[in-house]
Every structure is written in structure tokens, then in C-alpha cells.
Automatic annotation (TrEMBL), chains A, B, C, D:
InterPro entries assigned to the protein according to its UniProt record, in alphabetical order: Class_I_gatase-like, ThuA-like, Trehalose_catabolism_ThuA_prok
One Pfam family linked to the record: ThuA
Domain ThuA-like: 3-218
Name used for this protein in its record: ThuA-like domain-containing protein
Length: 238, 238, 238, 238
């Protein structure tokens, strides 16, 4: 059974009335619940817990980590970022949601600025599936339409994704690579754009479906554990 | 339950004593059996059956097709190749084994010559896993060693694989990209190098494991069925 | 000096008054001229010439071939398609323009249907550069805007491009991967979406700039000519 | 004219007699000289200079930076690593040579451990060209043979390269992806394996040819400078 930890900054929902209305118990609870309903074993962790809720023990028991952050990326301690980074390289899956494009852990894994254009006007977004055979697109229509979304636009400063699953159209004239697959070490990473805190996007069944698909895709497989360092020759040398 | 059809040219095993000894009932039977043991629903089809055993009905019921051919690629009828091609674009997975690199269907899907260097001296091969987190590498050690193999060497004239899972070392001084993932239309394709007819390679548990992994990976997912052609605007045009 | 052959179906311009007005001497002449101005040695070839103007001698002298076709893809003889295909694998660059996504040669090289959604309403298109460091994007702004364009929309049934340079936004609500790089054999291929016959798109300096960049990128380099077939061991075998 | 800075740790050559014999003035001088002979404007920089020789002014004037380090990666100051990192994202090319796979800057750009297997026995290496049409392979034969090389073996913990140009065979039974292209931000990166300090590998004309090719490939192009941050809508919102 895949074990999922949903990490959330969990500040907006406590400090901002509009957000509290959307997500009274926090974005993490909505995400954890929808994943539990789909058969995953879930727990949550938030910024203001000790070690941000991401102790060695928690990470050890996590197959896939979801990460949502926005206003307090800088408050995430570097030591915890390194711990998460090591676990990803070691095989833990990572889902990077919406404004977490700017999280320390995503920038650490990508090696780039992860910058983009943005605008908060509640415009229409249409996420087109460009790779319909990818498991992350299972159960989805040809596009997902969001009537009100924050805009994220290209250039998105990330390495070219190993697979681009979703490609977004925005009413205001922009496009965005909004569903991007990566592999780093033995860990699989999926960046998924939707999910602003003031729109009830994580309650949408299609969005929940994509997230559940991505968790399944990112879960570790039982591949060989790579070993490194000095090695004797396997074959006889002249 | 994933439905697998194992297609085999099935000539060597009837005409050549050495091959008959290795695979008395044909390569297809060994492959079908090892997949059945791993929980797949399997059937076989061979060149000399009517329509090469690949009727519309058979293909309709096939989630993943395995293809082994060597000496009679040219005898595969173009109409059947087109039929298989359409099914792949429509979502059927395809495993292309060993000398099937030169099959009509693989060349049709790759758009290249699929040529390579080769040598039949029974030399050692070591297939190194270069992407340990890929599901096709599950349950495999850091490398698979074959004590006697036909050599296939670079330049392998195929498009750069979407993921390279195995990279082969040969005793005689060559290397080869020996486990290559592709996506064409809604179909997933895996080229896997091992498997010459005079070596009992398909009886090796690690090889069977990789093939079973690849079947699981290549099985169709329930993504959107893409539609094409003229379309009304979704948004109002100025 | 890079030698370019511009191939054009050249039917619309002779049969349709609106197209004749845009391109009185044919699309090929406008393209050849703009490339000549940028220092390329150019010639043209059209469908109704003997061998479609693509004799062995012409192809032998061609470093990069541009291909524009629309209504008469089926009239291109298979033998000529095979000849062009071989030259591409052998190193000749190929630029596939607009409706040539459906040409025999592009489908032959891609191995897929190359289908897409389309609409001819003269809507706005914005081609966003997603890979600004690619040489094909040199001298271009963050996006190219076309005030009137035919729409091409996803799902575009092609293999995932090796590099995606342009990503298009359309007024009517669609997106499209509109600048796609591929490598097949020793040949480089660039698919570039803009260029409908009834809009004067090929007279736009930015579009001409992209095409010239792509010609430079696709021109053959002096890499090793790969050899294939049976080979002696390079190393001593046990 | 492309401006190249060759950075070298430059410790082995001063401290170890065997290395001093190979490279009396340092690896950087041999590399700078061979590039100057091929028409590049070159300078050098070394670890023990102030700011490791990589001042803002030097980097500003550098189109492509070569990096060779081995025993003192940790002595490179983080602030300088960040400076180089920013310049790469901003468009400067970077060639990462041999043991620099473990440099701070390469790990920073890759986001992975960059670990590998290794062995120093002076064994044979054969670098096979797997992508002959890539400009980095220009002027090279089907393989480059090194009679005595340090072994680097898979699993090499890097993201899958955007293009794999060279694939190495080692006498002792290992393989290695030895010529790997990446793009990060607007910068192009090439990792090239050969070059141990006790073998005169950088004096080999084929190796010099590859390095010169890679400098040309990695040099910045005049693409759009991406802009980021909040943006007004381009299109009218409902």
C-alpha cells in the first residue's frame, strides 16, 4: 500500500479569511482525504510542526511526498530540504504543486531558478493532455477546464521535462507546461500547476484524479539500489 | 487482467536442430508460459498461421504484443504490419525482441533503418541498468550477465529513446543501448536486445522478469482517446 | 555554404485567386528568396516537375530541404518519398512547414499519424519560445504574434520532440507544440507550424528568421558515417 | 569570437611528479592552447587565485567555461559556485571535464549526487559515438580509443541527458554515458568523461576536437532573454 505524506505550508488557511473559507482545515487535509478515499495510506505534515513534520522516521515511511508552499518557502530549513532531497534521490516520489515551483526542494532538484510569469485575475485555464498514454492522464478528458485560475506563463525556467503530460492555455494569452515529469536519482517527480489557495481547485474530481495517478506513477519501484565508489574489474585486464 | 499475444516467426525452431533443442515448442511458447506464470492472460501467434495469427479480433483483444522475428521479416504482409501499426497508435503495447529490431513493424514505428553492428561468437554481455527507478528495472540487479550472447553494437540507428533503461557491454569491445522505451500515438514500445535463438536466454529468470515488467509498463492506460479534425472554437473569437 | 532546396506543392497559388495574391510566384519563391538574402544557396522544386524536382542529383546537392504541401500529399510518389527519406537518414536536414505535418515524408519519419485538430477562422496565434537557448530561437522575442492564423491544436500525434522550441496559444482556446526538433538517422528535422497559404506569414521577418535559424541548425555536420553489419571482435574473446 | 575560460584546480600538477610530467604548466594551459589554436579567445583561471580567478568581470566576458577539478572540490567557495551557476542560467556554456562530475557546480546544476563507480588501473576505454549527427561528434571516427584510462562506470547518478553523444566501453567490464548534453536556464552544459591527470589524454587530437566542438555548441546564442514575474493580460479577460 502506497504511503503518502501531504506537506503544506498551512499559513494562508489560518491567516486569510478567503482561504480559510475554501480550505477550513488546510489544503493538506483536502488532499490527504481525497487520496485516502482512493486507497492510499496518508498522513500530513506542515511547516510549523517540529522539523516541519518531516522527521527521518516520517520520510522513511513515505513513498510519495506532496508539497504545497507559497509565502514561506524561505522558512523551510535547509537541513530539512537536504533530508527530503536525499530521500528523493533514494527513491521517494515527489509531487510539486502549484506555487511550490518556487520551493527550495524543487529548485534544489531542478538546478534552475524555476521562475515564471504570473497573474492573479481569476482567468480561464484549459489544461490540454499532450501525452494521452501517460499513466498520469488516465481517466481524464482531452482537457481539464478551470473557470478561475491564477495564470502561470512561459518561459518556465525548468529543465526540459522527461515527459510533458499537460500543456495549459490561459484566457489572457499565455501558455504553460503545466504537467511535467522528471527523474532525479531513483526518485520520480511530477510538477502539477493547478491549485491556487483562493480557488477550490483541489476539490475538483479531475484534479484529484490526476494527483492520485501521479502518486501511483511516482511511487518507488523495486529496482536495483545503485552502488557507487571504487570497484574491482569484473573482467580480466591485459 | 492484461492480455498478451506472443508473436513468433517460428521457423528456426522447426528447421534448425540446435534451435529446436533450445526451444522445442518455439520461443513463443516459452515466453507465453513465463508470462502466464506471472499472471498474464496469454496467447500466441506465428508467421505461418492465416493472417500470421494476427486477425482484427486477436489484436482487438491484445493489450500487449511481443514480437520475435529474424529470418523472414520480409514475409510479413504489409497489410498485417499496417494493422498492428494502427493498434499500437491506438494504445496497444509492443515489445520488440532481439532480432525484431529489423522487423517491418519496428522500422515502421521508428522511421529509421534500425540497423546495427552484429557478431555471432557467443561472447559475454553485461546489461547495465542505467535508470534504476524505471518500472522495467524492478527486481533486477545492477546488471544482468549473459555468458553467451550474439553481439549487437552501436551505432544503433533508432531515434533517441525516451528512456534508456539498459546499456550493454560486450566482451568483444562494443556497447549497445539494449533496453529502449518509446511512445508512438497512444502506444508504448520497448525494445529489448537479449534473446538469440541458439542461446537459452529466454529461460533466464532475470530476462523473464524484465519482459514481465515491460508488459506491465506497456499495457494501455485509460487516458483520453485523442480526437482529430476540424473543430469549432471553444472561446469566442474577436 | 549551406545548399537549400525549397519544395512546394505549388497548386493553391496557381488555382486559387486569394492564394495567388499572397504568393504570386508560389510560396517556394518567397522562401527561397528570403533564404538567399540570408546567405544560403537556394533552389526550388515543385510537385508537377518530373520526379517532383527531387532527382538523385538535386538531393545529393541539398543540405537542407524545406517541404510545404497541403492538398496533394497523395500525389507525391512513394519512390520519391523513399529517396528523400534515405537522404534524411544520411544527414540531409528537413524543415516541415505547416500543413506538411500530413506529408508522406513527415509521417514516414515520425512513424505516427501526425494528426491534429484544426480550424480556419483567421484567429490570433502567439508562439511562445519555451527553449530560449536553442539556436532556432536566436533573434526572436519572447513570443511571435500572428494576427490571423489557421488553428492547429493538440493532441498533435507525433513522438515527443527531442526539443520543443515553440508552444502556441490560439485565440479560440487551443494550444499546440509548434516548433519541434527531431533527429532521425543522421538527419535533423524541424517541424514549424506557421504558414497557411492565405495569410502572408512567410513574409514576416520573425518567421523568416526562425526558418533561417532552423536551416543552419539542420545542416549536416561532419560526424562519423555510421557503418552497419557483421563485425570482427575488436577485443580478444575468451 | 567565442571567449573561453579554462578553469583548473591546478593542484595535482604542482604537487605530484607524475602529473607534473604530463602537464608541466597545468591541464588548463594545454586546454587553453589547443582551443586558441582552433580560433577561440582563451584565458585561464585556477583555484588558488583570488576568487578562484572567476571574478564577476571574468565571467561576464566568458562565453564558455571549462571546469576541471578533482581533489579540492570542497575548497571552491559557495559564493563563487553561485556566481557561476547564475552565469550558466544566464547563457554561459559549461564544459564539465572528467572528475569535475563531482564538482559543486555540476552537482548544483544537475540536482543529483553525480556519483559513479570508478577504478584506476589504466585500462582500455572506447568511446562510441551514438549520435553521429550531433555537432559535438563532428570530425570524429565511429569511436575514440584510449589505451589507458581511469574507469568510470554506471550507474552514473545524473538526470537523463537531453542528448547522449558518447557511450563508453571499458576493458574491465563496465559501460558509461561519457558525453552528455544538458540545458539549464539559457546555458548549455556538456559533460565529457575523458581526462585523467596521469594520462596524456588532453593531448589527443580527437579529444581536443571534441572539446572544441563542444565549446562551439555550448556558446550562447542570441535568443530572447526570458523575463519573469507579474504580467498584465495580453488578451482581454471576460
Amino acid at each position: 500500500m502506497v504511503q503518502v505524506t501531504v506537506w503544506n505550508e498551512f499559513r494562508h488557511e489560518r491567516e486569510d479569511e478567503a482561504v480559510k473559507e475554501q480550505y477550513p482545515d488546510g489544503i493538506h487535509e483536502v488532499l490527504a482525504e481525497c487520496l485516502a478515499e482512493r486507497g492510499f495510506e496518508t498522513r500530513t505534515a506542515t511547516l510549523d510542526e517540529p522539523e516541519h513534520g518531516l522527521t527521518e522516521a516520517v520520510l522513511e515511511d513515505t513513498d510519495v511526498l506532496l508539497w504545497w508552499g507559497h509565502a514561506a518557502h524561505d522558512e523551510v530549513e535547509d537541513a530539512i530540504v537536504e533530508r527530503v532531497h536525499e530521500r528523493v534521490l533514494d527513491g521517494m516520489g515527489l509531487l510539486v504543486l502549484h506555487s511550490a515551483h518556487y520551493s527550495k526542494i524543487f529548485k534544489r532538484l531542478m538546478g534552475t531558478s524555476c521562475s515564471l510569469k504570473w497573474r492573479e485575475e481569476g482567468e480561464r485555464e484549459r489544461l490540454w493532455v499532450v501525452e494521452p498514454s501517460h499513466p498520469i492522464a488516465a481517466g481524464v478528458e482531452e482537457f481539464i477546464e478551470l473557470s478561475e485560475a491564477e495564470m502561470y506563463g512561459e518561459r518556465f525556467d525548468v529543465p526540459e521535462p522527461e515527459t510533458l503530460v499537460f500543456n495549459s492555455w490561459f484566457e489572457g494569452g499565455n501558455v504553460f507546461r503545466s504537467g511535467c515529469c522528471y527523474r532525479r536519482g531513483s526518485g520520480k517527480i511530477f510538477y502539477f500547476r493547478p491549485g491556487h489557495e483562493t480557488y477550490p481547485i483541489y476539490r475538483r474530481p479531475e484534479i484529484q484524479q490526476v494527483i492520485a495517478n501521479a502518486v501511483r506513477w511516482a511511487a518507488p519501484t523495486e529496482g536495483p539500489e545503485p552502488t557507487y565508489g571504487e570497484r574491482e574489474p569484473i573482467e580480466h585486464l591485459d
